[in-house]
Write a structure and sequence with these properties.
alpha/beta, seven-stranded mixed β-sheet, two-stranded antiparallel ribbon, binds cytidine-5'-triphosphate, binds magnesium ion
């Protein structure tokens, strides 16, 4: 039976957040933001090991206490210039520090999604464990979508039918994901599924909900804190 591993890319700078401190370390419900993603993944008995990918020279990581996760957590200081690069570097480095095999599952989860619920995580594992390709948590688009022009005038309304917002975790087999990300070359994908799609494969959309938000802008922090405090 394949095992499940998790990998958290955490080598971004949080430019849209606009804080000097990379957003994964901003305080949220009394802990650095990334603590919450680590807690949910490390506490799952179904996950063998959680890798976290830091930017080389990250000094902030050592300023915090991660002993809650000892035994389950592997820190890799090999982040790259893009999220895809960080994930690929992390996957390669994971080989050197764990027993991860070609057919094992890897759940890639953003450090900036602190509100992932145990129920959503279990649902993803249950729905994809026997899948050929893998997939991701996602939510059907709820709002009406407008295409805007350069002067911020509506050009037209886009149909939202069949449109989904991609979340993480995104779950693929180790070797397939390494191959897919290696093939991307210069093309930047903002998620892992995009690289799998470029191989002509069709990741499965596993229904999630809006609580698993990505903290991107300053105003997202209060919302994330509210969700964390009222699970
Ligand atoms: N990430 C990474 N390496 C990069 C860029 C991003 O590991 N070179 C990680 C981030 O740390 C985050 C996840 O990928 O956990 C999702 O990226 P995003 O929300 O875009 O975070 P940032 O890139 O840090 O933010 P921004 O795009 O606003 O700069
Ligand atoms: Mg980014």
């Amino acid at each position: 039976m394949p095992n499940f591993f998790a990998l958290i890319p955490a080598a971004g700078s949080g430019s849209r957040m606009g804080d000097e401190l990379p957003k994964q370390y901003l305080s949220l419900a009394g802990k650095p933001m990334i603590y919450h993603a680590l807690r949910i993944l490390c506490s799952s008995s179904r996950i063998t090991c959680v890798f976290v990918v830091l930017a080389p020279g990250d000094e902030e990581w050592l300023r915090h206490d991660w002993s809650d996760f000892s035994g389950k957590l592997e820190v890799l200081e090999c982040g790259g210039a893009t999220r895809a690069e960080s994930v690929l570097n992390g996957l390669k480095a994971a080989r050197g520090v764990s027993s991860i095999g070609d057919d094992d599952w890897v759940l890639v989860h953003d450090a900036a999604r602190p509100c992932l619920a145990e129920m959503q995580l279990d649902k993803l594992l249950d729905e994809l464990a026997d899948d050929k390709v893998g997939g991701l948590l996602a939510v059907p688009v709820a709002d009406t979508l407008k295409r805007g022009d350069a002067s911020r005038r509506v050009e037209h309304t886009e149909s939202r039918e069949s449109l989904w917002q991609a979340q993480t975790p995104q779950m693929f087999r180790y070797q397939l994901l390494v191959e897919a990300l290696s093939m991307m070359g210069g093309v930047t994908m903002t998620d892992d599924a995009g690289a799998i799609e470029a191989l002509g494969l069709h990741p499965k959309l596993v229904l999630s909900d809006a609580r698993n938000l990505k903290v991107t802008y300053p105003q997202d922090l209060a919302l994330a804190e509210l969700i964390l405090r009222n699970p």
